[in-house]
Amino acid sequence: MRDRITVVRIPLEDVILVRIQVPQHDYYQHMKNPKIITICSSAAHYRKALEIEKQLKAMGYKVLIPKTANIMKRSNNFDISSYKTWYKNKNDYKKKTQLIKDHLKKVVEADAILVTNFEKNGLPGYIGGNVLLEMVLAFHNKKPIFVYNSISEDLSIKEEIYGLNPIFIDQDLNIIQKKLR
């Protein structure tokens, strides 16, 4: 819908009255430049990440999530094997490449990232290779890196994660709000 402007001339006073009808905008209309947070997560945690997305939006943030998480949300299909087709067909790794590229763009676009990390493969606070790549990009671009849960001391990439100087929030999203002011 385009803005409509109505101009009315009143000849005696030579006054012009302008009425502007502004169309309704999205959720962020009430905010000037909302902060953008990109959620980075293992696909195994997308269902939980989507719950966190809702909470962040309720706090007034614009939230970017992985493309596959969006597809899972729309289809209500959280069976990871139906998306990771490259395990069965090596030619499908080009899909994986595109997903990585798309999400890295979201990391660059964001004001900060939130890593939603939960138990996987018996490791609490699991962070895998893709999320580590996203964290490194955020670090390189001087963006705050928030991590939802602490990580396991048994995680093979813990040294790299700690080296990126993330902010562990222990599931307290209010910490993000305090740090992003």
How would you summarize this macromolecular structure in one to three sentences?
With 181 residues, this protein is an alpha/beta fold. It is built from 6 helices and 7 strands, in the order βββαβααβαβαβα. Helix 3 (93-109) runs parallel beside helix 4.
Highlighted features:
7 strands, 6 helices, alpha/beta, 18% strand, Rossmann fold, two-stranded antiparallel ribbon, 181 residues
Shape: globular
The number of domains is: 1
Helices and strands, in N-to-C order? EEEHEHHEHEHEH
Instruction: Give the second-level CATH assignment, the architecture.
Output: 3-Layer(aba) Sandwich
Task: Summarize the main sheet.
Answer: 5 strands, parallel
Integer-rounded radius of gyration: 22 Å
> Which stretches of 5+ consecutive residues score pLDDT under 50?
22-30
Overall average residue pLDDT: 87
Sheet with the most strands: spatial strand order: 4-3-5-6-7
CATH class: Alpha Beta
Structural class by helix and strand composition: alpha/beta
Tally the helices: what do you get? 6
Distance between the termini: 33 Å
- What do we call the CATH topology? Rossmann fold
Task: Please indicate the percent range of residues in DSSP E strands (runs of 2 or more).
Answer: 15-25%
> How much helical structure, as a percent, in the residues?
25-40%
Q: State the total count of DSSP E strands.
A: 7
